[in-house]
């Protein structure tokens, strides 16, 4: 023991400090290396979730024994890669399916190799629907939204081009109700984003299947009580 101490003293203070730093670095490297190997690799389960959706999904997954990670924005859920399929099945079994639709990032994820013009059109349609749904979900009182676009192409040798149309399904947050003025704003948003689409070709529905704004030309009798109620509430508020 005495000989060891003498040898350490002979190294000098500078070498002892360097030796100590090297030892600490090796210990930390070993610790983080083992941790990285043992820690599971997480994969994205759902993205673009609303806070209420994320909260319900996290509760359901943790209750079923899954490890869940949520990003800082609270809109992206991740689970260990080996649990990805089972987690989706668990949420589907409880009726919890993410409403987050893909936007323009669909072109970042898709490979251009082997993609024909038809697939490109489908991806463009899906991306536009997803971006519109995201914009609608930023409106106060809207919890989730789905946008369906119909963009017909002009048939060969036809002079007339069919008009595009759209249906928007919205789910209100608890304690809120989308009024007629907000529905008109949604109609204007969708029609302005699609070339040659008139506002009257956009139908706005609730998740309960009730019509807030019907397509122009629809019989008044077909407009549901929800539309009339929203109109009355909007007049009272103004």
How would you sum up this structure, described in words?
The chain is α+β, with helices and mostly antiparallel strands. It folds into two domains: 42-94, Hypothetical protein rpa1041 (Alpha-Beta Plaits, 2-Layer Sandwich), CATH 3.30.70.1530; 121-237, 2-Layer Sandwich (GMP Synthetase, Chain A, domain 3), CATH 3.30.300.30. It is 46% helix and 15% strand. The chain has helices at 2-11, 13-38, 51-63, 84-93, 106-109, 117-136, 180-193, 225-237; strands at residues 42-46, 69-70, 77-80, 142-150, 165-172, 202-206, 211-213. The longest helix has 26 residues, at 13-38.
CATH class of the largest domain: Alpha Beta
Query: Overall 3D geometry?
Result: elongated
Helical amount? 40-55%
User: In total, how many beta strands?
Assistant: 7
Mean of all residue-level pLDDT scores:
76
Could you describe the largest sheet, including whether it forms a barrel? Answer: 4 strands, mixed
Structural class: alpha+beta
Which consecutive residue ranges, at least 5 long each, have pLDDT under 50? 219-226
Give me the Rg, rounded.
28 Å
Strand order of the largest sheet: 4-5-6-7
What is the fourth-level CATH superfamily of the largest domain? ANL, C-terminal domain
Total count of domains: 2
Termini distance? Answer: 90 Å
Q: What would you say the CATH architecture of the largest domain is?
A: 2-Layer Sandwich
CATH topology of the largest domain: the name is: GMP Synthetase, Chain A, domain 3
The proportion of strand residues reads 15-25%
How do the SSEs run, as a string of H and E?
HHEHEEHHHEEHEEH
The number of helical elements comes to 8
